[in-house]
Amino acid sequence: MSSNQQxxxxxxxxxxxxxxxxxxxxxxxxxFDRERGKDLMQETFMRAWEYIAKGEKVxxxxxxxxxxxxxxxxDESRKKKEQxxxxxxxxxxxxxxxxxxxxxxxxxxDRILSKLGQIDESYRNILVMRFINDLSPAEIAEITxxxxxxxxxxxxxxxxxxxxxxxxxxxx
Amino acid sequence: xxxRNKDQVENFADIETMLASLKQLRLHQNDKETVxxxxxxxxxxxxxxxxxxGEFDRLPEHMDTxxxxxxxDCQKLTLxxxxxxxxxxxxxxxxxxxxxxxxxxxxxxxxxxxxITMDAADKAVVRDELVAAMRVDEPIVEERHDQSxxxxxxxxLCGGRNAMFA
Lengths: 172, 166
What we know:
heterodimer; A: 0% strand; B: 166 residues; 60% helix
Protein backbone atom coordinates (compact mmCIF):
# COMPACT_ATOMS: atom_id res chain seq x y z
CA MET A 1 0.00 0.00 0.00
CA SER A 2 1.42 3.42 -0.90
CA SER A 3 2.09 5.84 1.94
CA ASN A 4 -0.31 8.31 0.34
CA GLN A 5 -3.16 5.82 0.29
CA GLN A 6 -2.37 4.72 3.81
CA UNK A 7 -2.46 8.30 4.95
CA UNK A 8 -5.84 8.92 3.29
CA UNK A 9 -7.27 5.76 4.84
CA UNK A 10 -5.97 6.66 8.28
CA UNK A 11 -7.42 10.14 8.03
CA UNK A 12 -10.77 8.73 7.02
CA UNK A 13 -10.88 6.19 9.84
CA UNK A 14 -9.86 8.93 12.22
CA UNK A 15 -12.81 10.98 10.94
CA UNK A 16 -15.02 7.98 11.62
CA UNK A 17 -13.79 7.72 15.20
CA UNK A 18 -14.23 11.45 15.68
CA UNK A 19 -17.62 12.03 14.04
CA UNK A 20 -19.55 8.77 14.05
CA UNK A 21 -21.40 9.51 17.29
CA UNK A 22 -22.30 13.01 16.14
CA UNK A 23 -23.51 11.81 12.75
CA UNK A 24 -25.47 9.07 14.49
CA UNK A 25 -27.14 11.62 16.77
CA UNK A 26 -27.85 13.84 13.81
CA UNK A 27 -29.59 10.97 12.01
CA UNK A 28 -31.31 9.67 15.14
CA UNK A 29 -33.00 12.96 15.97
CA UNK A 30 -34.35 13.16 12.46
CA UNK A 31 -35.73 9.63 12.16
CA PHE A 32 -36.19 8.83 15.86
CA ASP A 33 -35.14 5.24 15.36
CA ARG A 34 -31.85 3.89 16.73
CA GLU A 35 -31.37 1.18 14.13
CA ARG A 36 -32.20 3.46 11.22
CA GLY A 37 -29.96 6.10 12.72
CA LYS A 38 -27.14 3.61 12.83
CA ASP A 39 -27.79 2.47 9.26
CA LEU A 40 -27.87 6.03 8.02
CA MET A 41 -24.63 6.81 9.83
CA GLN A 42 -22.96 3.79 8.26
CA GLU A 43 -24.27 4.69 4.81
CA THR A 44 -22.98 8.23 5.29
CA PHE A 45 -19.44 6.99 5.78
CA MET A 46 -19.76 4.51 2.92
CA ARG A 47 -20.86 7.27 0.54
CA ALA A 48 -18.10 9.53 1.79
CA TRP A 49 -15.51 6.88 1.04
CA GLU A 50 -16.94 6.25 -2.44
CA TYR A 51 -16.45 9.94 -3.15
CA ILE A 52 -12.91 9.99 -1.79
CA ALA A 53 -12.01 6.83 -3.68
CA LYS A 54 -12.80 8.65 -6.91
CA GLY A 55 -9.86 10.88 -6.12
CA GLU A 56 -11.98 13.81 -4.98
CA LYS A 57 -10.63 16.11 -2.28
CA VAL A 58 -12.66 16.86 0.84
CA UNK A 59 -11.65 20.10 2.49
CA UNK A 60 -14.02 19.97 5.46
CA UNK A 61 -14.75 16.38 6.37
CA UNK A 62 -17.24 17.19 9.10
CA UNK A 63 -19.35 19.43 6.88
CA UNK A 64 -19.10 16.89 4.08
CA UNK A 65 -20.38 14.08 6.31
CA UNK A 66 -23.30 16.17 7.52
CA UNK A 67 -24.24 17.04 3.96
CA UNK A 68 -24.29 13.37 2.99
CA UNK A 69 -26.28 12.50 6.10
CA UNK A 70 -28.79 15.25 5.33
CA UNK A 71 -29.26 13.98 1.79
CA UNK A 72 -29.75 10.43 3.02
CA UNK A 73 -32.27 11.58 5.60
CA UNK A 74 -34.22 13.48 2.95
CA ASP A 75 -34.24 10.36 0.77
CA GLU A 76 -35.33 8.33 3.77
CA SER A 77 -38.17 10.67 4.62
CA ARG A 78 -39.44 10.45 1.07
CA LYS A 79 -39.63 6.69 1.36
CA LYS A 80 -41.08 6.46 4.83
CA LYS A 81 -42.75 8.75 7.31
CA GLU A 82 -40.89 9.35 10.52
CA GLN A 83 -41.67 7.16 13.44
CA UNK A 84 -43.94 8.94 15.84
CA UNK A 85 -42.54 10.31 19.05
CA UNK A 86 -45.00 8.09 20.90
CA UNK A 87 -43.35 5.08 19.29
CA UNK A 88 -39.96 6.36 20.39
CA UNK A 89 -41.17 6.78 23.94
CA UNK A 90 -42.75 3.33 23.92
CA UNK A 91 -39.42 1.91 22.80
CA UNK A 92 -37.62 4.00 25.40
CA UNK A 93 -34.84 6.48 24.79
CA UNK A 94 -31.61 4.57 24.91
CA UNK A 95 -28.68 6.97 25.30
CA UNK A 96 -26.07 4.24 24.97
CA UNK A 97 -24.44 5.38 28.22
CA UNK A 98 -25.33 4.78 31.83
CA UNK A 99 -26.37 8.03 33.48
CA UNK A 100 -28.91 6.50 35.83
CA UNK A 101 -27.54 8.53 38.74
CA UNK A 102 -27.86 11.84 36.93
CA UNK A 103 -31.52 12.61 37.60
CA UNK A 104 -31.34 16.24 36.56
CA UNK A 105 -30.03 15.25 33.17
CA UNK A 106 -32.67 12.60 32.77
CA UNK A 107 -35.48 15.02 33.56
CA UNK A 108 -34.09 17.63 31.18
CA UNK A 109 -33.61 15.03 28.53
CA ASP A 110 -37.10 13.62 28.77
CA ARG A 111 -38.67 17.07 28.74
CA ILE A 112 -36.79 18.29 25.72
CA LEU A 113 -37.07 15.02 23.85
CA SER A 114 -40.83 15.03 24.14
CA LYS A 115 -40.94 18.45 22.45
CA LEU A 116 -38.07 18.19 19.99
CA GLY A 117 -40.07 15.92 17.73
CA GLN A 118 -42.88 18.45 17.60
CA ILE A 119 -41.05 21.47 16.20
CA ASP A 120 -40.65 22.15 12.49
CA GLU A 121 -38.13 19.82 10.96
CA SER A 122 -36.08 22.67 9.51
CA TYR A 123 -35.64 24.07 13.03
CA ARG A 124 -35.02 20.69 14.60
CA ASN A 125 -32.26 19.96 12.11
CA ILE A 126 -30.50 23.20 12.96
CA LEU A 127 -30.97 22.89 16.74
CA VAL A 128 -29.56 19.37 16.75
CA MET A 129 -26.48 20.54 14.87
CA ARG A 130 -26.06 23.65 17.04
CA PHE A 131 -26.72 22.46 20.57
CA ILE A 132 -26.37 18.68 20.49
CA ASN A 133 -23.49 18.41 18.04
CA ASP A 134 -21.87 21.78 18.86
CA LEU A 135 -21.54 23.15 15.35
CA SER A 136 -21.24 26.91 14.96
CA PRO A 137 -23.77 28.83 12.83
CA ALA A 138 -21.04 29.27 10.20
CA GLU A 139 -20.39 25.53 10.11
CA ILE A 140 -24.10 24.78 9.85
CA ALA A 141 -24.36 27.32 7.04
CA GLU A 142 -21.63 25.52 5.15
CA ILE A 143 -23.55 22.25 5.47
CA THR A 144 -26.97 23.54 4.52
CA UNK A 145 -25.84 26.06 1.92
CA UNK A 146 -27.61 28.91 3.72
CA UNK A 147 -26.03 32.05 5.10
CA UNK A 148 -24.86 32.17 8.71
CA UNK A 149 -27.43 34.89 9.34
CA UNK A 150 -30.24 32.66 8.11
CA UNK A 151 -29.00 29.91 10.40
CA UNK A 152 -28.92 32.30 13.38
CA UNK A 153 -32.50 33.33 12.68
CA UNK A 154 -33.59 29.69 12.49
CA UNK A 155 -31.80 28.92 15.74
CA UNK A 156 -33.65 31.77 17.40
CA UNK A 157 -37.01 30.73 15.98
CA UNK A 158 -36.42 27.08 16.79
CA UNK A 159 -35.56 27.90 20.40
CA UNK A 160 -38.59 30.12 20.60
CA UNK A 161 -40.83 27.37 19.29
CA UNK A 162 -39.34 24.87 21.74
CA UNK A 163 -39.76 27.25 24.65
CA UNK A 164 -43.35 27.86 23.69
CA UNK A 165 -44.08 24.12 23.62
CA UNK A 166 -42.40 23.57 26.98
CA UNK A 167 -44.23 26.49 28.55
CA UNK A 168 -47.54 25.22 27.20
CA UNK A 169 -46.87 21.79 28.68
CA UNK A 170 -45.98 23.28 32.05
CA UNK A 171 -49.14 25.43 32.05
CA UNK A 172 -51.37 22.38 31.52
CA UNK B 1 -31.37 38.37 13.49
CA UNK B 2 -34.06 39.74 15.80
CA UNK B 3 -32.79 41.26 19.01
CA ARG B 4 -33.46 39.30 22.17
CA ASN B 5 -34.08 40.78 25.55
CA LYS B 6 -32.36 39.54 28.70
CA ASP B 7 -35.25 37.33 29.83
CA GLN B 8 -35.41 35.52 26.50
CA VAL B 9 -31.68 34.84 26.59
CA GLU B 10 -31.99 33.33 30.05
CA ASN B 11 -34.92 31.16 29.00
CA PHE B 12 -33.07 30.01 25.94
CA ALA B 13 -30.10 29.15 28.07
CA ASP B 14 -32.31 26.69 29.96
CA ILE B 15 -33.49 25.16 26.73
CA GLU B 16 -29.97 25.01 25.39
CA THR B 17 -28.96 23.12 28.51
CA MET B 18 -31.81 20.67 28.02
CA LEU B 19 -30.81 20.19 24.39
CA ALA B 20 -27.22 19.63 25.45
CA SER B 21 -28.41 16.79 27.70
CA LEU B 22 -29.19 14.88 24.49
CA LYS B 23 -25.47 14.73 23.73
CA GLN B 24 -25.50 11.64 25.88
CA LEU B 25 -26.94 9.73 22.97
CA ARG B 26 -24.09 7.62 21.67
CA LEU B 27 -23.56 4.54 19.63
CA HIS B 28 -23.09 1.38 21.64
CA GLN B 29 -19.43 0.46 21.50
CA ASN B 30 -20.10 -2.83 19.72
CA ASP B 31 -22.25 -1.03 17.13
CA LYS B 32 -19.50 1.48 16.59
CA GLU B 33 -16.95 -1.24 16.06
CA THR B 34 -19.25 -3.19 13.75
CA VAL B 35 -19.77 -0.17 11.54
CA UNK B 36 -16.06 0.63 11.63
CA UNK B 37 -15.32 -2.84 10.33
CA UNK B 38 -17.91 -2.43 7.57
CA UNK B 39 -16.38 0.91 6.59
CA UNK B 40 -12.89 -0.63 6.59
CA UNK B 41 -14.08 -3.42 4.31
CA UNK B 42 -15.56 -0.87 1.96
CA UNK B 43 -12.23 0.93 1.89
CA UNK B 44 -10.44 -2.28 1.00
CA UNK B 45 -12.88 -3.02 -1.80
CA UNK B 46 -12.60 0.48 -3.13
CA UNK B 47 -9.04 1.72 -2.65
CA UNK B 48 -8.58 5.37 -3.33
CA UNK B 49 -5.36 4.89 -5.27
CA UNK B 50 -7.03 2.72 -7.91
CA UNK B 51 -8.53 5.69 -9.66
CA UNK B 52 -6.47 8.52 -8.24
CA UNK B 53 -6.22 11.51 -10.58
CA GLY B 54 -8.39 9.71 -13.12
CA GLU B 55 -5.23 8.53 -14.81
CA PHE B 56 -6.23 4.99 -15.62
CA ASP B 57 -9.73 5.36 -16.91
CA ARG B 58 -9.36 4.69 -20.63
CA LEU B 59 -8.55 1.57 -22.55
CA PRO B 60 -7.55 1.87 -26.23
CA GLU B 61 -9.84 0.11 -28.67
CA HIS B 62 -7.16 -2.22 -29.98
CA MET B 63 -6.81 -3.66 -26.48
CA ASP B 64 -10.46 -4.59 -26.13
CA THR B 65 -10.50 -8.06 -27.62
CA UNK B 66 -7.33 -9.22 -25.99
CA UNK B 67 -8.31 -7.74 -22.65
CA UNK B 68 -11.80 -9.18 -22.71
CA UNK B 69 -10.41 -12.63 -23.29
CA UNK B 70 -7.84 -12.18 -20.57
CA UNK B 71 -10.34 -10.84 -18.08
CA UNK B 72 -12.72 -13.68 -18.78
CA ASP B 73 -10.06 -16.15 -17.70
CA CYS B 74 -9.20 -14.05 -14.66
CA GLN B 75 -12.71 -14.58 -13.39
CA LYS B 76 -11.93 -18.23 -12.82
CA LEU B 77 -9.22 -17.49 -10.29
CA THR B 78 -9.54 -17.11 -6.55
CA LEU B 79 -7.71 -14.67 -4.28
CA UNK B 80 -8.21 -13.79 -0.62
CA UNK B 81 -9.18 -10.21 0.25
CA UNK B 82 -5.78 -9.28 1.63
CA UNK B 83 -4.03 -10.84 -1.35
CA UNK B 84 -6.28 -8.97 -3.73
CA UNK B 85 -5.41 -5.70 -2.03
CA UNK B 86 -1.71 -6.45 -2.21
CA UNK B 87 -1.97 -7.32 -5.85
CA UNK B 88 -3.94 -4.20 -6.66
CA UNK B 89 -1.37 -2.08 -4.88
CA UNK B 90 1.51 -3.80 -6.63
CA UNK B 91 -0.15 -3.43 -10.00
CA UNK B 92 -0.76 0.21 -9.38
CA UNK B 93 2.80 0.82 -8.25
CA UNK B 94 4.06 -0.94 -11.33
CA UNK B 95 1.89 1.14 -13.63
CA UNK B 96 2.74 4.38 -11.90
CA UNK B 97 6.42 3.65 -12.42
CA UNK B 98 5.84 3.40 -16.18
CA UNK B 99 5.25 6.09 -18.82
CA UNK B 100 1.68 7.20 -19.53
CA UNK B 101 1.21 4.76 -22.43
CA UNK B 102 2.11 1.89 -20.18
CA UNK B 103 -0.65 2.78 -17.75
CA UNK B 104 -3.43 2.04 -20.17
CA UNK B 105 -4.78 -1.35 -19.21
CA UNK B 106 -4.49 -1.08 -15.46
CA UNK B 107 -8.00 0.08 -14.69
CA UNK B 108 -9.48 -3.00 -16.25
CA UNK B 109 -7.18 -5.22 -14.29
CA UNK B 110 -7.89 -3.38 -11.11
CA UNK B 111 -11.61 -3.54 -11.62
CA UNK B 112 -11.61 -7.22 -12.40
CA UNK B 113 -9.30 -7.91 -9.50
CA UNK B 114 -12.03 -6.55 -7.32
CA UNK B 115 -14.17 -9.50 -8.30
CA ILE B 116 -11.76 -12.40 -8.67
CA THR B 117 -10.01 -14.52 -6.10
CA MET B 118 -6.82 -16.55 -6.30
CA ASP B 119 -5.69 -19.51 -4.26
CA ALA B 120 -2.86 -19.15 -1.78
CA ALA B 121 -0.36 -21.11 -3.87
CA ASP B 122 -0.42 -18.41 -6.53
CA LYS B 123 0.33 -15.63 -4.10
CA ALA B 124 4.11 -16.02 -4.02
CA VAL B 125 4.26 -16.37 -7.79
CA VAL B 126 2.29 -13.18 -8.25
CA ARG B 127 4.40 -11.23 -5.85
CA ASP B 128 7.71 -12.40 -7.30
CA GLU B 129 6.61 -11.74 -10.85
CA LEU B 130 5.35 -8.30 -9.97
CA VAL B 131 8.58 -7.38 -8.28
CA ALA B 132 10.46 -8.57 -11.35
CA ALA B 133 8.11 -6.64 -13.62
CA MET B 134 8.60 -3.46 -11.65
CA ARG B 135 12.34 -3.71 -12.20
CA VAL B 136 11.95 -3.68 -15.97
CA ASP B 137 12.70 -0.11 -16.80
CA GLU B 138 13.59 -0.05 -20.48
CA PRO B 139 11.25 2.02 -22.68
CA ILE B 140 8.47 -0.04 -24.23
CA VAL B 141 6.66 0.91 -27.43
CA GLU B 142 2.93 0.81 -26.94
CA GLU B 143 2.08 -2.19 -29.12
CA ARG B 144 4.80 -4.34 -27.63
CA HIS B 145 3.84 -3.11 -24.23
CA ASP B 146 0.19 -4.11 -24.69
CA GLN B 147 1.24 -7.64 -25.48
CA SER B 148 3.85 -7.82 -22.77
CA UNK B 149 1.65 -6.45 -20.04
CA UNK B 150 -1.19 -8.79 -20.86
CA UNK B 151 1.20 -11.69 -21.07
CA UNK B 152 2.85 -10.80 -17.79
CA UNK B 153 -0.38 -10.41 -15.91
CA UNK B 154 -2.11 -13.36 -17.49
CA UNK B 155 0.85 -15.42 -16.44
CA UNK B 156 0.89 -13.87 -12.98
CA LEU B 157 -2.77 -14.34 -12.35
CA CYS B 158 -2.92 -17.83 -13.69
CA GLY B 159 0.11 -18.84 -11.65
CA GLY B 160 1.45 -21.09 -14.38
CA ARG B 161 -1.68 -23.22 -14.46
CA ASN B 162 -3.15 -21.53 -17.44
CA ALA B 163 -0.72 -19.11 -19.05
CA MET B 164 -3.03 -18.35 -21.91
CA PHE B 165 -0.98 -15.60 -23.50
CA ALA B 166 2.45 -16.99 -22.83
